[in-house]
Amino acid sequence: MIEFLCKFGRIFAFTPYSCNNRHPSFFQRCHICLVFAIYTVTFFGVQYVAAPQYSQLTHIQLVLSAVTYTNFYFTNVHILVVVMGLNQNRWFRLIDLLKSIEIRLDTKQFTILKLSLVIFLSLCAFELFVTFYYFGLVTFLLFLPTNIYTYSQFTYSICTCVVLQMVLTRYQHYTKAVLNRTDELFTVLQRVKLGVFTLKKCVNAFNDIFGWTTLGSVFCGTFKCFVYIDVASKHSEVVEMWWGTEGDQLHFLCEIGFIAVMWVGVLAPYLDNSVIALFQTGIVLTIFLSDKILNEFDNLLDLAWQRKGLNPHLDKEFKLFVSFVECNRPRFTAARFFAIDRSTLFKIINSSIGFFLIMIQSY
């Protein structure tokens, strides 16, 4: 599955070309530099063209625009320069760790992944068509930096969720192993200890690769929502302009679609005895998967304490096992700025409400 995602992300050099391509060729390095150069030139070109419009914005709108576009640029710079240019070995370290503990996802999850990609690419193609057909070549070129950022954000968002699902699957496997195996329990505990240690290193590698992009996604999703809320609540003439022509309406719907993908991902109904709503990407899923992994880790610890009393001969071994596992507790962070767990979502909502109140008072 990671190989499949590499094929998706390597178009704009956001992921390694292959899981086995440990030493990028000269052409591949030039590809990274070319994407970075095109993105930088078009980004600053767009800012130069849009500079007269910035002078017409209020202070709050100017801050929102500056933070949003700065986040766009530096998130992609981090991906292209830091992750892919200077530290591409982090990707292969993560891939090797996942392979070492034989983590695989089932066919159902792989089907949902492909469906998510198809829906996202369809949305991208439709937005490009609307921009070119209704607004012309110049506007189409002006929107290229935003489209590149959207592609990179989605690529890393879906990679984030896939890796988290793989890690969660393995923690669940270890919990079942400790719960079900009464014979050869000593051997099982040794294998689980090694697996937990490897998963901790997986989480560390995950934070190194996806921590900054997760932070960028949170900022981008939050401030884009602020922009639309600010305009919708204070500037009725702009809202009327959004629905002025057919092209404006279609483009606005595309933007709302991308914001929805960024926050809650692609909704993929899947029939499995009942209709289950599954999300393959998005900030919300990233937070809930991280929290679920932490809960599964706590379940493993609780189960080990419960099993300790059932076998007095392994009492010392269980104490060592619990101590070792506690020392290898996973911790998910967004670029080490804050931990990612269920409370993160409420902190985002709380901060958003506070900022929104400031926006209203400043009007």
UniProtKB/TrEMBL annotation:
The keyword Lyase does not apply. It is a multi-pass membrane protein. GO terms for cellular component: axon; dendrite; neuronal cell body; plasma membrane. Gustatory receptor which mediates acceptance or avoidance behavior, depending on its substrates. Keywords: Cell membrane, Membrane, Receptor, Transducer, Transmembrane, Transmembrane helix. Belongs to the insect chemoreceptor superfamily. Gustatory receptor (GR) family. Its main location: membrane. One of its GO terms (biological process) is signal transduction. It is found in: Cell membrane. This is Gustatory receptor. The chain crosses the membrane at residues 32-51, 71-92, 112-136, 148-168, 209-229, 249-271. It comes from the Eukaryota. InterPro entries: 7TM_chemorcpt (IPR013604). It holds the Pfam family 7tm_7.
